[in-house]
Every structure is written in C-alpha cells, then in structure tokens.
Design a protein that fits this description.
The chain is α+β, with helices and mostly antiparallel strands and 179 residues long. The protein contains 5 helices and 9 strands.
Length: 179
C-alpha cells in the first residue's frame, strides 16, 4: 500500500492485535442490523435507529461515498476477515484525524479495543497523522475504558456540545500521539 496522505486507497484491509479491519461488502448487509440495531448504539452514536435493512444499505453506500471523497474510511471489525462484529471509522476533520467505533453489544468484552490501535497505526503511517483523536461522552464508561486501554489520553480541550436525536451531548477529546 503506497503512502498517500491526500486520499484513501480503493481497498483497505488492516490486520494486527488478532483483528482484521476490512471494507464493508454487499455480503455484510444482512448482518448489519443485528450489529447496530440496539438501544446502546442508538444512544451513544450517530447511527440511525431503528437500524434496519434500509439503514444498512445507506451505511454501505455512505462508506463508499466517503472513501471516494477521501474524507473517511469505514471498516468492518472482524476476528479473521469474516463476519463483522462492529465498525471502525477514520475521518479527516478540521480538528485532526478522528477515530470512531461501534462494537455490537454481542461482541463487547472480547478485547476489540485493539481496533483503535490498528487504525491509529494506519493513520500515523499512511496518512502522516501526528495525532489521532476520539470524541467521547464522559458518561459512556465503556467507550472511555476502550480509549484508555488503547493508549488514548484525555486532552485539555473545551467540551464539544450539541444536540443529536433529541438529546444534548458533551464530548471530551481524547488523543493518541504519533509514536
């Protein structure tokens, strides 16, 4: 894979930490509602709810559009390149290179925090990022624990506040610096 900080390659598959992060495919569409149609995902993430077959199609189409635009990549989190267990996102944003993730409740507690380290390594090596950031709600204890296990630290930055899906939020910014 050639280094090119201005675009994402047409195909991405990353492996490490006993995980394979790969492109979403048409074959994943039937599994996506089972992964993402959950109150916890609906509450803490911008994923639509209910997350049904139409939402899965829209998510796959959006992943492909973001890749073409060069603004983000959305990859399925897998143990072996097979069945997806969640999603990890890497996005170029004005505030830096941002990481996001959503792991299906059925697969939590299995050490999937490693997806953050794998994706951050990709950002450092191929996108020349100096820092990868996460924006998390402090009350989302599970996500905060994942960030800490992956080596992210809370940054001294103002909270990002707003409203989404009819509820207010306040996001903390966590960062992981280039090694």
């Amino acid at each position: 894979m050639a280094k090119n900080p201005s675009s994402f390659p047409e195909h991405v598959e990353l492996s490490g930490q006993d995980l394979v992060l790969r492109d979403w495919t048409e074959a994943d569409l039937p599994a996506m509602p089972g992964l993402f149609d959950h109150p916890d995902i609906a509450y803490w993430t911008p994923f639509v709810s209910p997350f049904d077959a139409a939402a899965a199609r829209a998510r796959l189409d959006r992943a492909r559009q973001l890749r073409r635009e060069g603004s983000a990549i959305l990859l399925a989190i897998t143990a072996d390149g097979g069945a997806p267990m969640g999603e990890v996102m890497l996005r170029r944003a004005p505030e830096g290179t941002e990481l996001g993730y959503a792991v299906s409740p059925a697969f939590r507690g299995q050490g999937l925090a490693a997806e953050g380290r794998v994706m951050a390594s990709y950002a450092f090596e191929y996108l020349a990022a100096e820092q990868v950031i996460l924006e998390l709600e402090a009350e989302n204890a599970a996500s905060v624990a994942v960030a800490a296990r992956a080596g992210f630290r809370l940054l001294d930055m103002p909270l990002i506040t707003g409203e989404e899906k009819g509820r207010p939020y306040a996001l903390q910014t966590w960062g992981l610096d280039r090694p």
